[in-house]
Design goal:
This protein is an all-alpha fold. It has one domain: Four Helix Bundle (Hemerythrin (Met), subunit A), CATH 1.20.120. It is built from 7 helices and no strands.
Length: about 190
């Protein structure tokens, strides 16, 4: 398929937006599977949802299918997947994730989203940075190890799970602080 045979960038129902919608549905499936006590199945569905995160953005840029809906919906779905999974895991004993961790993840995401909206409304650029991207990678690793440790409690995954969870929490705080500093410079300047 060539770029010229794709729908124009203004078309809402294009491949990137359909991929994002499928990731949203997968997120709901992850929550349901955790609630049903199926961490092994939840792990695989989460892995699929998280690993396809880059597909929608790559496709949209490559085939000029960037839409206003996609620019809003894709980061929203990213936040639903990670925040929702942390919330559901915080309710499960043996996950290694406790409520304050879910609150920290939620608070950081709401804070950065608010800052981004404010700065971009003022005409500034508030694009994602590398610490923010690595934060997402560590959070996904923490969720994956949490689900695996619940699925296989005798596998000895407690230490790697806990290390990944606390590393994710540290990078969540650090990346939030970087965004705050960048926003402060934009506001004061």
């Amino acid at each position: 398929m060539t770029a010229s045979s794709n729908p124009p960038s203004g078309t809402v129902m294009n491949v990137p937006n359909l991929v994002t919608m499928s990731r949203f549905i997968l997120a709901i499936a992850v929550f349901a599977l955790i609630g049903l006590g199926q961490p092994w199945a939840a792990f695989w569905v989460f892995l699929l949802a998280a690993s396809t995160d880059w597909v929608d953005g790559w496709w949209a840029r490559k085939y000029q299918q960037v839409t206003k809906l996609g620019r809003i919906f894709d980061p929203f779905v990213d936040k639903v997947i990670i925040c929702g999974t942390f919330v559901f895991l915080a309710a499960e004993s043996g996950s290694g994730i406790v409520p304050w961790m879910a609150v920290l993840v939620l608070a950081r995401e709401m804070f950065v989203t608010s800052l981004r909206g404010f700065i971009e409304q003022m005409g500034g650029d508030f694009s994602a940075n590398w610490p923010g991207k690595w934060k997402m990678v560590l959070q996904c690793a923490a969720v994956g190890l949490s689900l695996l440790s619940m699925a296989f409690p005798a596998a000895g995954l407690t230490v790697p799970r806990d290390v990944s969870i606390y590393a994710a929490m540290a990078l969540t705080i650090y990346s939030g602080a970087i965004y705050l500093a960048a926003a402060w410079k934009s506001i004061v300047a």
